[in-house]
Amino acid sequence: MTNDIVALIEYYEKEKDIDRDKVIAALEFAFLSAYRKMVPGADLIEELRAEVDTKKSETRIFATLRVVADDDYQDKFNEVPLAVARKRRADAEPGETVEFNVTPKDFGRIAVQTAKQTMMQRLRQAEKEMIYEEFKDRAGDVVSGTVRRFDRSDVMVDLGKFEGIMPSRERVATEEYNVGDRIRAYVVAVENQGRGPEIILSRSHPNFIRRLFEAEVSEISDHTVEIRGIAREAGYRTKVAVWSNDDKVDPVGACVGLRGARVKNIVRELNNEKVDIIRWSEDPVKFVQEALKPAIIRSTRLDEANKIIHVTVDEEELSKAIGRRGQNARLSSRLMGWDVQVRKDESQHEQFVAKVADATTVLAETLGTTVAVADKLFHLGGMNPALILEMPAEFITEAVGISREAAESILSKAAVAEGRPPVETPAAVAPVVEADTEPETQAESADAS
Questions:
Q1: H or E element: which one contains 165?
Q2: Is the pLDDT of residue 22 over 90?
Q3: Of 74, 98, 127, which residue sits at a domain end?
């Protein structure tokens, strides 16, 4: 056994923290594989073992053979005649087994290159098994690591002795990663499949938010405050519903912290993702009012059979309740487990329309005209007779589309309603000739023409 094999044992034992016995076992397996490749017929030997002496740098191969009578000897790979067996062990009897050293000359020097590759494969497998053993109970924890490389869109993260993988589905769409970046991630699972154990990491998982709050808010870690629900669209917005076991502890205030210090730390870790902290309630009506803030809800209606909650808001509150691209309402639905349907409150508009209709009906009766004409006048600004009197007859004729006589009749009745004299129709005015005009002057003018 050469010095590089000894160095390899030392490396895996100290740097990779693999037990020395496992390293030596891998080395023994490797030398057995090399022996079978080098010695013709070695594959037919049923029982072989390798023995590695790291102090003397020696490797020996032993075969265990069955003792048979000299006349029954047939299988030279797995049997040994009684006479030969008794040279190895004097008390040997047929049916027993005797171990023989079958190490070829110069085996260590020749087998090293063959064994080295096999040993590396075994040690890599041992390393993966150790990863699984160490991390199988850490699913659900948050770990820190450094971005090492990229495999297509997957991010490979150096966790120290081990390497984790953050698949593209677990990445945050708004985040960019560079080699050497220090990141924290949530351990989704440790999978032990055909390719060996894999540590699956995530920064988009909702439970990543839960672990950050548990680390930042002492009231959550000691179970005074509980996180009852999380709804997240990674990179954009998260809603967290919290509840307190102690009436004296405000769950929202505990999570926000003094001057927002606690939640700011979490938002910073999430690269400025918006985090809404909501007071949890068993009452769906109260819960949806908290979840849709800052929008103010006018009314709610529950369909408990289908788990639907109908929410009505004023028109100016509609955009707040729905949120950008429907995000606020969508996250509220996920958080509550109900289908939250938001619509505009039409009652005020309906009341306004009804008042306008009543006003135009009264106006039509006052002016002695149809409701349609009164409605046009109302929308032109003539909401009462006084305002209509300020409109010229020509304007009413053109804007409303009625005759001049009808317009003048409307103005007259509007004047009567206001206690003024009726508006008279101006008579046609004839050309006026002054009485003191001299005939001579007229004659001169005629001659001049």
A1: strand 163-166
A2: no
A3: 127
